[in-house]
Amino acid sequence: MELGSKVPKVDLSVQVGKLTLRTPIILASGCCGYGFELLRVNDFPWEDVGALVLKSITVKPRVGKPPPRVAEVTAGMLNAIGVQNEGIGAFMERIAPRLAELPCAVIASIIGTTKEEYAVLANALNGCSGIAAIEVNISSPNIERGGIEFGVDPKAAGEVTELVRRNWNGDVWVKLSPNAHDIALIAQSCSDAGADILVLTNTVPAMGLDVRSFPPKPLLGAVVGGLSGPAIKPIVLRKVYEAVRRLRQIGAKAQVVASGGIWRAQDIVEYLSVGATAVQVGTLLLHDVHAPRKLRTGLEEYALWVHKLMNDEKWLRISSYIGCALGACEP
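^ thats the sequence. predicted structure below, dont judge the formating
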């Protein structure tokens, strides 16, 4: 670029369902509570955040798992929180009226142990004007079918999605489990049942031991938990690719949001390139609460580099990168 020339402006906005987000960076459920905690963070970069997903809500209050609930491991973090929350009644009474204080789009996350619980939660949230969409967490044991996860059973996943669709007036996001044998089939089932957005994925089942004691003890109070962080990104990238391919093959309108292991802007580019429309960031926030600013800056720098390389204005729009690598990924 010549000295004194104007730096082109990069457009980071994306359309996720009915929501127009100023950036593709969404704060993941469970990593920022109900969002109010971030309002107390000095100079938090809200302008770099597209949306925020609240921590999951259940019908009745839950106390969660015993401590310790989080532990650092190589290239990631283990957690076993147990969906601690106050229940839908307290949420509607104390939290919902304050959601307008948050300077970005807000998505509620719901989780149940029966299909009917999901329907109850979805219906209740219709009374909350501050909610732009619902994220349905189906990485939960279905007690009506012997404890098998909703997210590994195409039929159950579709049934939950359909019930939420019937009881909620806005966009339905469904967060898929990484445990599914064929995640593309689960994605198709949820899409057929009315899901607008598919979020891939939840944490990967894992555990760790503290060998500083003997015999070694579990790092988590619940013994086992979920792994998040950079270690899982290649795993989730493949699952996003497989889901996007299936959805495109069947002509589905559902979009995919990637969630897993983002640590730098290049990770976001990878997810967008295989067809994700946006991404969710979680564990990185616990490492650096101001990380959205660095991610946004990194995306802008990458777009400017590609624009200069390709000499095409379209690469100044981040939405142009969605699916751009799918052709190169064909076997």
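The first helix runs from residue 36 to 39.
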